[in-house]
């Protein structure tokens, strides 16, 4: 609502680059081969991805840009706003029957609930999918991580506070706002997941190099990060 841009995060499930693809001397990861392999396997695990996303306090990150009073105002919980369209006639789906006038967001939330995923993308009282953080859920993050840990153990990946999954996240260090937002991400994820996931903050003092790490690559295997936003 405050400008023409919506920002989002990207989880890299196919990482192959551990320095910038256009300049291998820039942004080198400090992870060992074993740590890199463990992070990739973790990112390919559905429960780990849910845990990671649910551990991000987006409102706190947003506050670094707009302040505490406005931190919820511009938060979005779905790519398509829930009040974008309503049904012109009743529709019956596998999850139930929805009458004419039902908002897209109501159906979206009903499907998410039916899938057993604990994210909120629609507020029925205010008829909106914006203005609240429906993804940040520490309890859900912890429970999903435990499911991920069990599945990853079957793949030979041990996850614990003593042997955490290390996630590389690049940020533009010349920007105080970007630096504060990166630290907010680190603090919220590591706190919510009890240190079993660690955010490796990778500083880029040149904005072009920062963009080449996460925004300019066309493919995940070129992206020099496990997560970027």
Low-confidence stretches: none
**What is the typical, i.e. mean, pLDDT?**
95
Strand content: 5-15%
What share of the residues lie within helices?
25-40%
Backbone shape: globular
- Major sheet summary line: 2 strands, antiparallel
Distinct helical segment count: 7
The strand order across the widest sheet is: 1-6
Give helix and strand order, one letter per element, not per position.
Answer: EHHHEEHHEHEHE
Number of strands: 6
From the helix content, strand content and strand pairing, which structural class follows? alpha+beta
Cα(first) to Cα(last) distance is: 19 Å
Radius of gyration: 19 Å
In short:
The chain is α+β, with helices and mostly antiparallel strands and 229 residues long. It has helices at 33-43, 46-54, 58-66, 104-114, 138-154, 176-192, 207-214; strands at 10-11, 91-93, 96-98, 165-172, 197-204, 227-228. Helices cover 36% and strands 11% of the residues.
Descriptive account of the structure:
With 229 residues, this protein is an alpha+beta fold. The chain has seven helices and six strands; from the N terminus they run βαααββααβαβαβ. α6 links the parallel β4 and β5. α2 packs antiparallel against α5 and α3 packs antiparallel against α6. It is globular, with a radius of gyration of 19 Å. The model has no long low-confidence stretch (mean pLDDT 95).
Q: How is this fold's topology laid out?
A:
Layout: E1 10-11, H1 33-43, H2 46-54, H3 58-66, E2 91-93, E3 96-98, H4 104-114, H5 138-154, E4 165-172, H6 176-192, E5 197-204, H7 207-214, E6 227-228
Parallel strand pairs: 4-5
Antiparallel strand pairs: 1-6, 2-3
Helix pairs in contact: 2-5, 3-6
